[in-house]
Amino acid sequence: MRDLVRRIDAATPADRDRAVDALRALAILGVVLGHWLVTALVADSGTLHGASPLRAMPALAPLSWVFQTLAVFFVVGGLVGARSHASARARGESHGQWLRGRLTRLLRPVVVVLVVWAVAVAAMLALGADQDTVLALCRLVWSPLWFVAVFALLTAVTPLVTRLHPLWPFAVVLITDVHRFGSDAPSAYAWGNVVAGWLVPYCLGAAWSRGELRGRGTGWALLLGGAAAAVALVRWAGYPPTMVGVPGEEISNLDPPTLAAVCFGLAQCGAALLLLAPLRRVLRRPAVWAVVAVTNLSAMTIFLWHQTAMIAVTVTGLLLDDPLPGLHTPPDTPGWVLARLAWLPAFAAALLICRAAFRGYETGRSRTGSTVVREGRPAGPRRDDSCRVRGS
């Protein structure tokens, strides 16, 4: 392990901002833990159906404010995308060449999870599995893929985003919500927020790449202003108190994103800026940086397979006669929450197995056989003492 840590640290360019990678890793892990804590599969008369503890225990709503970290991923995506595109232009690459490389690395692991689950669905139906159960499992695995579609779209328009002020997509969200909740506008009208809502942090990331988000004052302004606006919208404008979707609720802050979710995302972006300096100090330690680097190397694999890991543990538990607390029981008591916390190591172990099986589709291999890093992320171990790092 010491040798691995040393090689990862040595393979990292001296000018690389490790804190940005840490923010990406924290965003992905926040989503994973959030899904594991607020998503349940309840066993009922031979079937499985989805449920959420947030519906039965509204007091847990602040939990969703901690683990809904998508805005951090989008602000980092805007930063890295803008820098990467500028570097590609400097090397003489066309936008098409740059985009092809970005989307290949983004979408290749998506194709794998879709193929695997298509085969799994066919097998379950052929073996006589309940259709409602199969549908519930598919929803858990495939519903988060909207994130990949939006991120791919924003990546494609990165050259335009670099010249777009975040206030413009914010205004679109504001106007959309006014029409959505203040008039009889069709519900389909609100789906423009799926792009506009996440374009706000993505544009902030592009502005960050231009050096426009300097100083801790900007971070505090975004954090306090965004948090105050989100709280005010929940308290006095009738927005849901949870920042994730809750089954059975009429309005979701994420489906599509509402003004409250966007304001909360601004607060998260401010917190990310304020965390940069502390993270840089901590990440000087090679062991800490190695954990961040390895997580980033498999970020998409972790995101795409974390629900499968939870499903695998849940279905395996059905082999026992009695439903297991925190795994198959309704999420309607504090005892369920404590039991679910005890299951997290099992979910993590299953996810590590998925990562070992499928991470090669994300990381790729160089012509020399060494493991390389997407967009300059540190390389994994090789059999010799050298590591290669591709510049971002």
Task: Characterize this entry briefly.
By secondary structure, the chain is mostly helical. The protein is 67% helix and 3% strand.
Record field, number of beta strands: 2
**Total count of helical runs of at least 4 residues:** 17
Q: Structural class per helix/strand content?
A: mainly alpha
Strand content: under 5%
Pick out the low-confidence regions.
Answer: 366-392
Tally the structural domains.
Answer: 1
Sheet with most strands: strand arrangement = 1-2
The run of helices and strands is HHEEHHHHHHHHHHHHHHH
Largest sheet: number of strands, sense, barrel closure? 2 strands, antiparallel
Describe this structure in words.
- This protein is an all-alpha fold.
- The chain has one domain.
- Helices cover 67% and strands 3% of the residues.
- The chain has helices at residues 2-11, 18-38, 53-56, 61-67, 70-90, 95-126, 131-142, 145-156, 158-161, 167-182, 193-209, 216-236, 259-282, 286-297, 299-317, 334-358, 360-363; strands at 40-44, 47-51.
- A two-stranded antiparallel sheet has the order 1-2.
- Mean pLDDT is 89; it is low at 366-392.
